[in-house]
Design goal:
alpha+beta; four-stranded antiparallel β-sheet; Pdz3 Domain; 4 domains
Length: about 450
């Protein structure tokens, strides 16, 4: 719990700071007075100090932040959220509304821009420090027809050992690429080219139909070897003495040639003691392993099934890719673009009701994920932070008053009309925006709580 709380505060604090820093620097650059820079909304905590004309505070409601700019028009509309009025008064030429339209657009857009740049910077830094690893496997050991959704039934015709060449026209050079292509939310269907087959396999399932796409992916078993990459501590295989580096030869008298052979035998025998023959170095030995009984949901039928699991992961020799400075920048941009595309397609799917709003996560979910990824390592945590930064940028562009997108709409209306909306109209729209925002917050908190209780 402590790790999750600390990781959550760190992740959210950094992202809010980066976003508000964009507004702050842009406002200063065009000469707008900034009386307050706040992490959080509402009244200020004792964590506050004054430097120059700006008061820097941490407020009590931490889910966001703001840069309060000098303005006579917005004081009343935002007073409750922004901790009350501020001092001192600023001369007319330093007020937000006194600046030309282009300058105000730059200031309002700067937070979104900073979040995009921060996400790109983090992705590029991770690419430069760690490179990337890919599973070079592109051959399929088997297709489980019992878990295929009806629209993907033709995938069962792919023979064992077949190589996937292309998906939707893109060449597949790794299993990671296959996973990304199948789960691509922006694709309308899957066109899979298989070596040795003249005609591609067509799967008419939209990318936003995440459940069926996951079922498609789960039905394809890559042709991994029978080596043990990890024996999970406390699980049946580890308790029987199986170790990383061992190699399965046979299970219950049947030869094991691929990891799928092992999976199939174990999956079908929950609670049944199975003799397993393995190779370790120059020696061969046999142990008895009883697969643990676990309940899973068949993605094709939706019915619960009891299966066997022993807790071993396959031995995979990943292909490591290293990047120079320029390559890391380019790879960082590609990852940022993929993250933005994922967020955008998800939002569109929710609006078009192709994706359930129950899938949206909130602060509790972010805290849980932050804690889990922090325990895995800093690289995993920062990659999650980069994804959230891109997510925050796009969400802030939504045309909801209070968010940056709503303010940009006000400015665009001003540009078209030649004069701004009245203060009263903006206040009413801002109040409506607050109502929408609080409704969205209630939704995500409800989703988080229901997710905790498994509903």
């Amino acid at each position: 719990m402590l790790v999750s709380v600390v990781a959550f505060v760190f992740v959210l604090g950094v992202l809010i700071f980066v976003h508000e820093l964009g507004h702050f620097l842009a406002a200063k650059a065009v000469g707008i007075g900034v009386p307050r820079f706040s992490i959080g909304f509402g009244p200020a905590t004792p964590l506050r100090f004054q430097r120059g004309e700006t008061e820097y505070v941490v407020a009590w409601f931490p889910l966001g932040g703001y840069v309060k700019m000098a303005s006579r028009e917005e004081q009343e509309a935002m007073a409750s959220l922004e901790g009350g009025p501020t001092e001192p008064e600023f001369p007319a030429e330093r007020l937000f509304e006194s600046k030309p339209l282009w300058a105000r657009i730059v200031v309002i857009s700067a937070g979104v821009f900073m979040n995009f740049v921060f996400g790109w910077f983090v992705y590029a830094t991770l690419a430069g420090l760690y490179g990337s690893t890919e599973d070079p496997t592109t051959t399929i050991a088997a297709v489980d027809s019992t878990t295929l959704p009806p629209a993907a039934r033709h995938l069962a015709d792919i023979p064992s050992g077949a190589q996937i060449l292309r998906i939707n026209g893109d060449t597949m050079r790794s299993y990671d690429a296959i996973v990304a292509a199948i789960l691509d939310p922006g694709s309308q269907r899957l066109r899979i080219d298989v070596a040795g087959q003249a005609e591609p396999v067509l799967v008419p399932i939209r990318g936003t139909d995440t459940q069926d796409r996951q079922a498609v992916l789960g039905s394809l078993y890559p042709q991994w070897g029978p080596g043990v990459g990890e024996a999970v501590p406390g699980r049946p295989a580890a308790r029987a003495g199986i170790e990383a580096g061992d190699r399965f030869i046979a299970v219950a008298g049947d030869t094991v040639r691929t990891y799928y052979d092992l999976f199939k035998a174990v999956n079908a025998n929950p609670g049944v003691a199975l003799p397993m023959t393995l190779e370790r170095g120059d020696s061969v030995f046999t142990v008895s392993v009883t697969p643990a009984e676990e309940t899973v949901t068949n993605p094709a039928t939706g019915e619960e099934e009891t299966v066997g699991r022993i807790g071993v992961n396959p031995a995979i020799e990943p292909l490591r890719i290293r990047y120079g400075a320029a390559g890391a920048v380019v790879e960082g941009w590609h990852r940022t673009w993929r993250a933005a595309d994922l967020v955008w397609v998800t939002l569109k799917g929710i609006v078009l009701r192709q994706i359930s709003a129950k899938e949206i996560g909130g602060p509790i979910f972010i805290g849980q994920m932050s804690g889990q990824l922090a325990r895995i390592g800093l690289s995993a945590l920062f990659e999650f932070m980069a994804l959230l930064s891109v997510n925050l940028a796009i969400l802030n562009l939504l045309p909801i008053p209070v968010l940056d997108g709503g303010h940009l709409v006000f400015l665009l209306i001003e540009g078209v009309r030649g004069r701004p909306l009245s203060v009263q109209a903006r206040m009413r729209l801002t109040q409506a925006g607050l109502f929408i925002l609080f409704g969205l917050m209630a939704l995500v908190f409800t989703n988080d709580i229901l997710r905790i209780f498994g509903r």
